[in-house]
Amino acid sequence: MPDKILAQAPGDDCYRTVQHSGEPKGRVEKIGDIDIYIATPPTGTASISAKGIILFYANVYGSLYINNKVLQDYFTERGTLKLIKAVNTY
Predict the structure, then answer these.
(1) Which of 1, 29, 33, 45 falls between 20 and 30 A from 90, CA-CA?
(2) H-helix or E-strand containing 50?
(3) Is residue 13 part of a domain?
(4) Which has the closest alpha carbon to 29: 88, 90, 85?
(5) Which runs of E-coded beta strand occur in 1-90?
C-alpha cells in the first residue's frame, strides 16, 4: 500500500499573483530585527477608534509585498488596528 500524503509541495499556482492597483500609504519601521509595515489613517481625518484588531499573516510573498501593503491600507482606512509581522519565525 503506498504512503498517503496529505499535502504536496507547492505548485506553480501557489506562486502566481495579480498586481493590485494603488500605492502603499504606510511606512516600514524596524522593531528589533524585524521590519514592520505601519499604516495609519489618512492625514487630516478625524481620529478613528479601532473597530477591531486584525492580526495580518501574509501569504508566501510576505507583508512587505505591495499587494499586502495595499490590503493592509484598505483595512486601516476603515478603522481597524492591524498588528503585522513581516517575517514568520517559528
Answers:
(1) 29
(2) none
(3) no
(4) 85
(5) 27-31, 34-38, 53-56, 81-84
